[in-house]
Write a structure and sequence with these properties.
Layout lengths: L10 H12 L5 H11 L5 H13 L4 E3 L7 E3 L7 E5 L5 E4 L25 E4 L2 H6 L30 H10 L6
Parallel strand pairs: 3-5
Antiparallel strand pairs: 1-2, 3-4
Helix pairs in contact: 1-2, 1-3, 2-3
Family: Belongs to the Fur family.
Keywords: Cytoplasm, DNA-binding, Iron, Metal-binding, Repressor, Transcription, Transcription regulation, Zinc
Main location: cytoplasm
């Protein structure tokens, strides 16, 4: 794989590929930690450079769901998609559904030579859903946010009734499919 890309085979590059392959969609810090298990004195910069080079050459795939840090994977030979947990940030591969139509072909390409479409599905993973099941209210609707989840640090509490803010936060609901 490295030879096919005309890259020198180095211990750090092999360790980076191994770490990304072994871990589930790791972020950069996770890759650095895993590489340091094999090569204790490897520098951050060497790992960053390896991730960039390997991604640029298509040996690794870099994904970065909105609002998330960059993550890496070795599954590069297809145009699969991802599920991202809004609660814990877990990322899972999803194959394209056969026979289902989603917008993978734009109505206008604006002169671009399109070679890939990226779809990210957002939701809550089974583990987070089971550990943080929303409390039932009197009307049977679950609360999506607890009063503790509302950031009131940036709010001037003299000008705002924080009890009203917290009460409104408990009324938020997530629509489920």
């Amino acid at each position: 794989m490295l030879r096919d890309a005309a890259l020198r085979i180095t211990k750090p590059r092999l360790a980076v590929i191994s770490a990304v392959d072994r871990l589930a969609h790791p972020d950069t810090e996770s890759v650095i930690a895993a590489v340091r298990e094999a090569i204790p004195d490897v520098s951050h910069q060497t790992v960053y450079d390896s991730l960039r080079t390997l991604s640029d050459l298509g040996i690794l795939r870099r994904i970065q769901p909105a609002g998330s840090v960059a993550r890496y994977e070795t599954r590069t030979g297809d145009n699969h998609h991802h599920l991202v947990c809004r609660s814990c940030g877990a990322v899972v591969d999803v194959d394209c559904a056969i026979g289902e139509t989603i917008c993978l072909t734009p109505s206008e390409d604006h002169g671009f030579q399109i070679d890939e479409a990226e779809v990210v599905y957002w939701g809550v993973c089974p583990q987070c859903a089971s550990t943080s099941a929303p409390a039932e209210s009197a009307d049977g609707a679950g609360a999506a946010a607890s009063p503790e989840a509302v950031n009131t640090d940036a709010v001037d509490t003299d000008a705002v009734n924080t009890d009203a803010v917290n009460t409104e936060a408990t009324k938020l609901k997530v629509a489920s499919p």
